[in-house]
Amino acid sequence: MKLLRNYFLKEFISPLFMALGVLTFVMILGNLIKIAELVINKGVDIFSVSKLFIYMIPYLLTYTLPIATLTAILLSLGRLSSDNEIIAIRASGVNLFSLIAPLLITGFILSLTLVIFNDRVIPYAHYGTRKTLKEVGIKNPTAALEPGVFINSFEKYILFIYRIEDNKLFNIRIYEPQENKPTRTIVAKRGEFIAVPEKMVVKLKLIDGTSDEPDPENPAKFFKLNFKTYFITLNMAMSEKKGKIDKKPKDMSLVELKNEANKLKEEGIDPTPIYTEMHSKFAMAFSCFVFVLLGSSLAIITRRREKSINFGIAFLLVGVYYLLTLGGETLALEGMLNPALAMWIPNIIFAAIGSFLTFRVCAS
After folding, report:
1. Could you tell me if 23 and 64 are in contact, meaning their C-beta atoms sit under 8 angstroms apart?
2. Which residue among 5, 261, 310, 316 sits deepest, i.e. has the most Cβ atoms within 10 Å of its Cβ?
3. Are 328 and 337 in contact (CB under 8 A)?
4. Full-prediction pTM beyond 0.85?
5. CA-CA-CA-CA torsion sign (7, 11, 16, 22)
6. What whole-number distance in Å separates Cα of residue 154 and Cα of residue 148?
7. Which residue, 123, 149, 146, is CA-closest to 255?
8. pLDDT the model gives residue 344
9. Residues 77, 316, 343, 118: is their CA dihedral positive or negative?
10. DSSP 140
11. For the segment 242-291, what is each residue's pLDDT rounded down to a tens digit?
């Protein structure tokens, strides 16, 4: 029996590392194109880009590890089933569940590992990414901006830039919403950013345009001022305290999220988004265990050893899982479901189906 258990585990572990390596490489390759663009087209220094790349890898693993786990269980047990090894084991009188149990334990261990990963490593990486992006935005503002979209990365102002070439901006619209007053608008044909890293600000030089200026006799009204050159000082919209960027929920550990939720409740603010993020960290981590439970029975039933087919089944199941996760998150944030129930719905559904199929497979 011990020999068979080790055999099952060996058949599972090898495809796990293979699938994990392939999936992570593919995702990294897709992001490398964007990173290369930052260096080649945007002029971002290689040190900042390297930090972004390092921070990106842990975040990718939270997705690639569950997918790799499901793919590995389909590949390994699918091959054993298609080669009639499962039938031979049953004919020998061996209880099939006793051989699947070590795989379930391995999936549970992987899930516990992801819980720690999501609690400690991912928040640190996410926060580090935001800090690095802010540094990039201060040193090279155009690297953090996209043409043709509204940009609210700066305090007080909303920018819309039709075209960006290197550090040159073309057809610029700047809006300054004001409480109980009309929105102030500045329009310029051309412009460029002047970074002032030591002061953590960016100056925007505008050329050939018009600006709304308050009427001295009636400040609630504006008059148009034509200008040849106009300077605006822009502060990053991320709030700072002693040079530190405030953390968002995705930047927080479970303890920090719990403290933030208690703080919001004391202030009379609905902490549902915080609770949703907390349960999301747990639920996503335990997808590894759920995928092993469902995938083991599916592999035996389908009896497919082809890698392409098993990868296809894995991506289909993962797609359904993440769609359910997104739906649950929406229901939680809209207040239609308790966050705990909403974020665990995909795991509950997949675990129920997996348990039923596993019972059928082991009992037959």
Report:
1. yes
2. 310
3. yes
4. no
5. positive
6. 17
7. 123
8. 95
9. positive
10. -
11. 445 677 888 888 899 999 899 888 888 888 989 999 999 999 999 999 99
